[in-house]
Structures are given as structure tokens and as C-alpha cells.
Design a protein that fits this description.
The radius of gyration is 23 Å and the shape is elongated. The protein has helices at residues 2-19, 181-201; strands at 21-25, 36-38, 41-42, 49-55, 63-69, 88-90, 110-116, 120-128, 144-146, 150-153, 155-156, 171-173. It contains two helices and twelve strands; from the N terminus they run αββββββββββββα.
């Protein structure tokens, strides 16, 4: 009888512990800000890759929670704390017009963190265009951006609606501008003229 009571108690404790874990949705559609822009222009149509990272402080090391990749077809986050391959999901249609340029994880999954429900965690979002499987360097054809850290009070897996990215600031993705050949040539002529002028003055 004692063994049975101990087993039931342990099981109940495990269940309560699991339900008390903090969860978050990768969704900024309810945020006052949280818009995605590309080179300063609000974007409501372009699909992007995006990564959600978390830390216990704004100055701490941010670790991945979930990644939305255009090159992935995985739609089954496993609901366990921490980041693993199942937390990489398809990013197809992650930015849709009816959300007015907000980032939305179309899998509708919540992600479990190594923190209790109700705890305040710091998050940041990185996003990029193209098909790279991780954050690339900005280029003339790839727009890249990393947002400033923000806080979220974690929801509970018992909640009917888990917490989204309600405090996410706007995120601007930028491309690298490469000067046209004519511009480079003019700069070269200007530099040469300056050097010549300096020599004459000496």
C-alpha cells in the first residue's frame, strides 16, 4: 500500500512539474509592434526564415528556442524543453497579409522552456531571407536582421492560449548595398585627384 501511495504521489508530482513548465508561441501578431520590414519598408508578403532565442538576462547568452526555415518541411515540435531538430519547422507563409507583417509560426505549436510558467524570460528574434539554414551574412540579395532583446512572461501548457511575443519590437532586415561600377570609378578619380593636389602643394 505504501508503495502504491508513493508511486501515485511521484506521478502526480511529475505531472504538476510538467504542467508548470513555461511555454511560448513564436507569434508576434498580437504585439503592438513586432512588424517585419525589409530595408525600412513594412513587408506583408515575403516569407522569411526566423529564429527565436532566449536568455535569463538581456546581456546573457541567447540560446535557440525554435527556428522557422523555408527549406524545412518538419511540422512536429516535440514539446520538450530546450532546442532540438524537431523545433525546426517550415517557415512557409510565416508572414501573411492578414497579420499585417507580423511573424507567425503556422504550425501553431508552443515551445517549452527550461523555466516555470509565469517566469519572465528575455527573447530576441533573428530573421533572414533566402534559403540558408542559419543566420547568414547580409548581402545584396539576402536581407538580415537581429532584433533587440525583449521580455515575455511565460504561459503554462495548461493555458488555453500560451503566451506569444507580445513585447516584440519591430525588426528591420537589411541588405548590403554594393556600389555600382560607375560610382567606384568616380571615387577612384576623386582619390587620384586628391593625391595629385597634395603632391602639387608640397
Amino acid at each position: 500500500m505504501k508503495k502504491l501511495i508513493l508511486s501515485v504521489t511521484a506521478l502526480a508530482a511529475c505531472s504538476v512539474g510538467a504542467y508548470a513548465q513555461g511555454v511560448v508561441y513564436f507569434d508576434s501578431s498580437s504585439a503592438a509592434a513586432g512588424h517585419i520590414s525589409i530595408n525600412g519598408v513594412l513587408d506583408t508578403t515575403t516569407d522569411v526564415n526566423a529564429e527565436l532565442l532566449t536568455s535569463t538576462s538581456a546581456a546573457g547568452t541567447f540560446t535557440p528556442v525554435s527556428m522557422l526555415l523555408l527549406s524545412s518541411s518538419n511540422q512536429s515540435p516535440d514539446g520538450t524543453p530546450g532546442f532540438d531538430p524537431s523545433d525546426i519547422v517550415s517557415a512557409a507563409n510565416d508572414i501573411v497579409f492578414n497579420h499585417n507583417g507580423h511573424l507567425t509560426d503556422q504550425s501553431g505549436s508552443f515551445y517549452v522552456l527550461n523555466a516555470a510558467a509565469g517566469a519572465t524570460e528575455y527573447f530576441e528574434v533573428a530573421a533572414w531571407t533566402g534559403t540558408a539554414n542559419s543566420l547568414p551574412a547580409s548581402s545584396p540579395t539576402v536581407a538580415v536582421g537581429v532584433g533587440t532583446p525583449f521580455t515575455v512572461a511565460l504561459g503554462s501548457s495548461l493555458s488555453p492560449i500560451a503566451t506569444g511575443l507580445n513585447n516584440m519590437p519591430d525588426l528591420n532586415l537589411t541588405t548590403t548595398v554594393v556600389p555600382e561600377p560607375g560610382t567606384l570609378a568616380m571615387a577612384g578619380v576623386g582619390l587620384a585627384s586628391m593625391l595629385l593636389f597634395r603632391r602639387k602643394n608640397k
